[in-house]
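ok so I'm stuck.
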Amino acid sequence: MNALYFSANFANLENKIAMILLDGKKISAEIKAELKKEIEKIKASGGKIPHLAAILVGNDGASETYVKSKVKSCQEVGFHSTLLRLKADISEAALLAEIQKMNQNPEIDGFIVQLPLPKHISENKIIENIAPEKDVDGFHPINIGRMTKNLPAYIPATPFGILQLLERYQIETTSKHCVVVGRSHIVGSPISILMARNAPIGNCTVTLCHSKTKDLSYFTQKADILIVALGKPEFIEAYMVKDGAVVVDVGITRLPDENSAKGYKIVGDVKFEEVAPKCSYITPVPGGVGPMTVVSLLQNTLFAAKKQVYLPNPF
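replied:
not stuck anymore, here's the structure
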């Protein structure tokens, strides 16, 4: 198993505890290399090169960064990519018209509409108008429904990335207690379903916690696998985590930092320096789940190009 081992020794800890860093940057690079080889074979045989498109509405900073990362990743593996930039004041009807153009464009295999959208546009309406077979973000009700029934579907990119991290690090999930903190439709809800499925990466007993959960630490302290997608920086502290737990931190937030040249630092939902010494495995932020989200989107696009969405999913 390829892994990054290190020891942490903190003042309030008598012993050094070895753990493994779930290195999403490293694993995503491995998957990109695999994708690049496959694209080279497709190109050599005269097959269709996958084409991923993205629609970016407005100029949200985080969205800009994320979309640029997707475009760069497409270039790295040999995909075609298209980025359509639209003004923040575009009408919902005009955006829907652009979506229909992409639905009908045979050159585009899959596309995403970058979220969040301006408040005057219904995200649900936009998602529901993306053709399910091109919905490589995996947000369309048809794909969510198929995933829920354990049928082949486009799995939302972040949950897909989490599954692959667990699989590539050979983490045993069967019969484990998985606690998910956060119930968004993008991460929390789908990953709770996936971890409970009868599948190699699954078969967990799952507890889904959220903002209305009383005594949250009671549940997190019992987790063999703790997946945190709450959107609250450094919310999970050491006392909330069981010794030896596997911790997957989905959160990413910029906090002001006078000691940084950029003026900020990036943190997750887990207080890493406190929690890491207690873990058997943990994702860093940045460099954990984020890179896996992007590469999973590329994999979904390859499935779309091959018309493989209804074939058995590896997970």
